[in-house]
Amino acid sequence: MQKLNALVVDASTEFRNKARALLSAAGFEVDHAETGNQGLEHAGRTRYRLVCCSDDLPDIVGSEFCGQLRAINGYDYAAVLVMTETDNARTLKQALLAGATDIFSKHDESELGIYVQRLAQRETRQLSGRVLFIEDSRVLQTIIIDLLTDMGLDVDSYTFAEKAWDAFSGGDYDLVITDIMLEGSMSGITLVRKIRRLHEDYGNVPIIATSGFDNVSRKIELFHLGVNDFVSKPIVREELRQRVFNHITSYQNFRELRAQQNSLCSLAMLDELTQLFNRHALREFAGKYLSEAYRFKRDLAMAVIDLDHFRAINEQYGFVRGDNLLAELGNWLKRHVRDVDMIARWSGEEFVLLLPGCDNHTASILMQRMQKRLTRFKPASIGITISVGVATLRHDKQDTLNSLFEMADRAMYQAKMAGRNCVRIYHAESEKPVSEILE
């Protein structure tokens, strides 16, 4: 990791003190000089990561200072900031042409403070991640591996694209760096194409292509294939370092954001206590079940399950024990429904199941089996029974989720009225009101 040091060149003691305070707060060790020549002497003895100079030095102008500083060995990639009292377009342009990195007003300390803070964070941050690196030049391979490991990265290095592809298929990488022209039967272009054909998140990994052929049409072709960046050989270490830093941090931020979105989606769709889908998720996904049932003229049943005497359980055993009961029951229900079924906690001790491909009779049989199995399961060491109402989608009535739920819920209350611990099938009011009881 490069030492964080800075040089402030300005005739004003007041400004030097202000700049020193800003830079020290960001973690820089600060030297100062009053004239441009003194600053150049300091720079010749010590390599600084950051140099701040006035645009109006006593002996030379700021643009001339920048030009002479850049001519000193080791200052190709240092940050050189020119500080101005007044905005002068011609002076600023000359400074930028002479090699200044950026221009700041001496009257806006906050802007300068933000810049140096970000520079310090970028310079001191150690990356973590895995890089897949493919290069058939042993010398260049060694140089780049040293660079990447010095950044804190784990590197899997290969000479042939075939072996790199095998490693990629079984690994989780944050970046791929590949030469385009490689020995062996697979080129770097083929490797890029195979990675981008993957549909999983792995196919979105950033790819930096390297090549000794700095041809515009070749680079455009590579971007069409899906590379994120291109670095020409001979490779400049500092350039590659910054590109690697940017791509890995962007990709990791993207993956972190995706994970947060998935987590938020789970929180929005899952009931926290039972880890079953919640009412919102049921409404979200039920449309697919209904549309498929109507489109292919298939049966679709709904079962509404309600725990019997749950209020008494809470009063006898306490609400904590009651919550434990619901949590264990939710886990048990997930294991005892078909893969195609959807189960959700509707509210309190009430659960809803969508049962595709089931008519009233089949759905009732499934619920009957569940009741029998439940007699052998005591969540939170408490024996429970359930009342179940079943209803089937009526194609001629164009039932919705709400109307299907109303029918199943009405049948569940009929089960309660019949003494609980039973299954009732919904019948239209115009039909015989006595529903079938399956025990």
From TrEMBL:
UniProt-listed Enzyme Commission number(s): 2.7.7.65
Enzyme category, top tier: transferase
Residue ranges of coiled coil: none
One Gene Ontology cellular component: plasma membrane
GO molecular function, one term: diguanylate cyclase activity
Superkingdom field: Bacteria
Cofactor: Mg(2+)
InterPro entries according to UniProt: CheY-like_superfamily, Diguanylate_Cyclase, GGDEF_dom, Nucleotide_cyclase, Rev_trsase/Diguanyl_cyclase, Sig_transdc_resp-reg_receiver
Record-level GO BP terms: cell adhesion involved in single-species biofilm formation; negative regulation of bacterial-type flagellum-dependent cell motility; phosphorelay signal transduction system
Keywords from the named record: Phosphoprotein
Annotated Response regulatory domain residues: 5-121, 130-248
Limits of the GGDEF domain: 298-428
Catalytic activity, as annotated: 2 GTP = 3',3'-c-di-GMP + 2 diphosphate
Modified residues (4-aspartylphosphate): D179
Record has Phosphoprotein as a keyword: yes
Entries under SMART domains matching the protein: GGDEF, REC
Pfam families linked to this entry: GGDEF, Response_reg
Name used for this protein in its record: diguanylate cyclase
Organism: Methylophaga nitratireducenticrescens
